[in-house]
Design brief:
binds fe (ii) ion; single chain; Four Helix Bundle (Hemerythrin (Met), subunit A); 5 helices; elongated; mainly alpha
Length: about 150
């Protein structure tokens, strides 16, 4: 691992863990209700923690010099995150009503597209513009949360 890509590296690892839990949840759809509910809860907690980490521990540190270009990315991320949270709460409501959520596959597709955007555009850009001090602080915060 190249040291100046450490945040990207850590996030790629985290994205894999989130997606593994989504896979387990998707597989559990055909199982008993209680098993499916537990798989959802586990995935939901990990994913909500991930979004919190990105927004509160990572992106708040981003103070782009080229403000126009820099801030173009953050609204996109926020829009994606809100969409993810909305979809999560729709699934949670279905489960609370004793139903099996539909649209799980579409949810996964949306998430994978968002992950690609982060790993290809957002995190490489952050790695370029953050100072070493900022990166160190971010990495410390990430370790508190993962
Ligand atoms: Fe994200
Ligand atoms: Fe992410």
């Amino acid at each position: 691992m190249v040291d100046n890509k450490k945040i990207l590296y850590l996030m790629v690892q985290e994205h894999k863990k989130v997606e593994d839990l989504i896979d387990l949840f998707e597989q559990s759809i055909d199982s008993e209700y209680e098993e499916m509910r537990q798989a959802f809860t586990k995935m939901e907690w990990k994913l909500e923690k991930h979004l919190f980490m990105e927004e509160k521990a990572i992106f708040t540190m981003y103070e782009p010099q080229d403000v126009k270009q820099g801030y173009d990315m953050l609204p996109t991320v926020t829009t994606h995150h809100n969409e993810i949270l909305n979809r999560l709460s729709m699934m949670r409501r279905a489960i609370q009503n004793g139903q099996t959520p539909t649209e799980v596959h579409a949810f996964k597709t949306f998430l994978v597209r968002h992950r690609d955007f982060e790993e290809r555009d957002l995190y490489p850009r952050l790695e370029d513009v953050l100072t070493q001090d900022q990166k160190d602080q971010i990495i410390e915060r990430i370790h508190e949360l993962i």
